[in-house]
Amino acid sequence: FVRPELVGEVRYSERTSDDRLRQPSWRGLRPDKVPGEVKWE
């Protein structure tokens, strides 16, 4: 098993009913966040 250590930001137009991202775009790493703080917005 692995533990998450890095956090990245991804923007997307919408989330589908089966939790897929529509038109995702990588925005970069977020060194100001820790993995335990991450949630869907």
Quick overview:
By secondary structure, the protein is an all-beta fold. It is built from no helices and four strands. A hairpin with a 5-residue loop joins β2 (14-15) and β3 (21-22).
Question: Which keywords apply here?
Answer:
mainly beta; 41 residues
Which overall shape is indicated by the principal axes computed on the Cα atoms?
A: globular
Which blocks of ≥5 consecutive residues have pLDDT under 50? Answer: none
User: Which structural category do the helix and sheet elements fall into?
Assistant: mainly beta
The H/E string reads: EEEE
Backbone CA Rg: 12 Å
Arrangement of strands in the largest sheet: 1-4
Tell me the helix content: under 10%
Structure in words:
The structure is a single chain. By secondary structure, the chain is an all-beta fold. The chain has one domain (8-37). Helices cover 0% and strands 32% of the residues. It contains no helices and four strands. The protein has a two-stranded antiparallel ribbon with strand order 1-4. A two-stranded antiparallel ribbon has the order 2-3. Strand 2 (14-15) and strand 3 form a beta hairpin.
Task: Draw up the topology in text.
Blueprint: E1 8-11, E2 14-15, E3 21-22, E4 25-29
Antiparallel strand pairs: 1-4, 2-3
